[in-house]
Specification:
About 35% of the residues are buried. The chain is elongated and about 115 Å long. Strand 4 and strand 5 form a beta hairpin. It is built from 18 helices and twelve strands. The two termini are about 65 Å apart. It has a six-stranded mixed beta sheet with strand order 6-9-10-3-11-12, with helices on both faces. Strands 2-1-4-5 form a four-stranded antiparallel beta sheet, covered by helices on one side. It is an alpha/beta fold. It folds into two domains: about 300 residues, ABC transporter transmembrane region fold, CATH 1.20.1560; about 230 residues, 3-Layer(aba) Sandwich (Rossmann fold), CATH 3.40.50.
Length: about 550
Amino acid sequence: MEQGRYWLFAKLILNGITQAFAALFASRMMHLAFDLTHKKQFVEWITFARYGAGLALAALLVAWLRMAERVDAERMGQDYGNQLRIRLFEHISNTSVRFFQQRSRGGVMLRFIGDLKVLRLWISLGLARIVVATASTVIAMAGLAWMNRAMAISATSILIVGCFLGFAWGKHLHQAVVESRRRQSIFAANVNDKISSIAVVQAFGQSGRERERIAKQGEKLKEAMITQARASAQLRSIGDATASLATAMVLLVGAYEVQLGRATGGTVVAAMSLVGLVTPLLRDLSSAFVLWHGARVSNGKIVEFIRTSRKIVDTPFAPDLLPGSGKLEFRGVSLGKILRGISVFAHPGTRIAVIGPNGSGKSTLLSLAARLADPDEGQILLDGQKLSDHSLASLRHRLGMVSPDLPLLRGPIEENLRYRWPEAPEDEIARVLKLCGVEEIIKELPDGLRTRITEGGANLSLGQRQRISLARALVGSPSILLLDEADANLDPRSSSVLEKVMANYPGTVLMVSHNMNFARSADTVWYMEDGAIVETGAPQTVFGANGPASRFFNARAICSV
């Protein structure tokens, strides 16, 4: 793909050179034709016709080259944008979930859509124009120097001064672009947050206050964009002024050269035609510089995003996890200020109840087991194999997970069920449908498995969503099942389905729960407090003693009375 872009880049350079030579040919035709009019002898019309045909041919060639330039430039920009889009998505898909929990969706989407668009426009409308304009201008000025050195020097001097002023003024534009991008990010983050939580805004009657906040942010964004537009217009005006001054200077110097007898009228006409080629290129260059400053800011934002995001490293050519019984072990695992010194293991086929107060690190522990994040210290092993040393794909095959952070996706129910294993056979889908009671849900829906789920599963009840999520996690019979508060706020039917699945599940289960009944029915209890596991053991042992786990549930029981 990169070789294709290099070829397009070379084509653009060749295009600019060809445009310049076509302009030189046209200027030569004008030079000869104009000088013929000053000769005393009669010139046949056929001679002028030949020159006219040459000019028409040159004009058609330049028009075709301009068309090819636009197509090749857009192809190069789209190719670059598509490749960068894929690479950025690959990075996002392998980034720790914790990173996105600390960033706004609006800001992330601005990187993925807004900044990528700016970079694509820079390649297709900025870099491509600079390549063509530079190649054409250099050759055109060389041709002008061949015709008349004085006119070439005057035009080149104006161009150099114009470029210098453009670069000098660019810092003002850069500052304006930085501020406008900052305002866009703030505005996008706030709007995305309020739209995703619009029910909260409506329920608490804060629509008016949020409208005022958005209006204030919108006003600041408007002012920032106007400032950017003003700086862009000033930079473009430098290009326009440079083009006009170059034309006027060539005309004045040309007239003086004719008076001195060092040039003819045809030479001046030819020189003006070459300047006519350069003039629109100068305007293109000023527009390209505007795009360049925007691309600098966008590129910096993307680089910062990639640099600060914590990636889940999938080692190239890492071996797959070998099949095993499902023993999960944490060895000295710590993560920031959330988890510290976790050393515990789950025997194959056991049901582990992970309990503790909110904020104690229970959900984070499950995320580490699923490698949605990597620990700062320590190792996590599955059947004696370090997760960090093996491929992510094989780990995803070995475990299933249900969590509030893993919502159903927009699309048909069947597509959601198959998301973990797209090629799952029909009998496997039928098995999990029956096991999780999803058959009952399907019968109630007019389109069955083809029923489309809206964003976040808003068109389904909580119990229906949980049963479908559980079925999705069980496709393929993973040896490890991670359940993050899957029993919270369920209706009696959904609770009974979950209890039945847990009772008959052959693999290892880690379930975060605040349900005393589930904790008592588990094989082992892990009680967490302040990022550490402070008590473990069988339920009858843990709850029989006057330890932290027993005191925790007693306190909850008192509060619920």
